[in-house]
Amino acid sequence: MSRTPKSREAAMTTIRPGRRLRGNPLSRRSDVLEAWAALLLGVLGFLVAPVAGAASGWSAHADAVHQARVEAADRHFVRARLVEDAPAAVPAANGAELNQTYPVRVRWTDGGGRPVTARSSVQAGLDRGSAVTVWLDSRGAVTKAPMDTGDIWTHTFAAVFLVTVTTAALAGVALVVLRRVLRRGRLAAWEREWARVGPGWCRRPA
């Protein structure tokens, strides 16, 4: 019983990549290309991606340390008091209260003894008159605290994760696209071959 081109295509695509690489007589050029692509992209996804992530993390850590030093040199803090109550924390869906902050008016005394009022992000739920720490830049403007050790490592791990996952994902997408292109090419080749020999196979004697 003869097979249609698509059924033959399905049968041929069941050949294992290892057998394709060992010169199976049923292998086509597209089979060999697909097998080598799967091998190379697998190496890229499982070996190169972690290495790229580690290299990116190393660079990101160095940049974060430098940024933390610059911020620490440029910023200083003052002790201030709330001029108004801070909004209460909004419970999360599971009932827990997240670490929420809100911009609230605060007041402190500058180096010249003059009162200064500005808005600064403070912990939710604080009452008027509560003491808080306010960070200022070299111009005296309210800013956020300089990066600490936790911020540095968060930045580092984020870079490692992003680069590793992106590299592995690109390898996977490339393999999927290549397989689809090769499959379409094989199907097109089968259609051309069937158009050439199919009429002779299907002709029945009178």
Write up what this structure looks like.
The two termini are 20 Å apart. With 206 residues, the protein is of the alpha+beta class. It folds into two domains: 5-67 and 154-202, no CATH class; 76-145, no CATH class. Helix 3 packs antiparallel against helix 4. Strand 4 (131-136) and strand 5 form a beta hairpin. Mean pLDDT is 79; it is low at 1-21. Helix content is 55%, strand content 16%.
Multimeric status of the protein: single chain
Low-confidence spans: 1-21
Percent helix among the residues?
A: 40-55%
Largest sheet: 5 strands, antiparallel
Report the sheet-strand fraction: 15-25%
Number of helices: 4
Distance between the termini: 20 Å
Order of helices and strands: HHHEEEEEH
How many domains would you count in the coordinates?
2
Secondary-structure content class: alpha+beta
Count of strand segments:
5
Q: What is the overall pLDDT average?
A: 79
Task: Using the CA coordinates, give the radius of gyration.
Answer: 33 Å
Q: Based on CA inertia axes, which overall geometry fits?
A: elongated
* Strand order across the largest sheet: 3-2-1-4-5
Question: What is the gist of this entry?
Answer:
The protein is built from four helices and five strands.
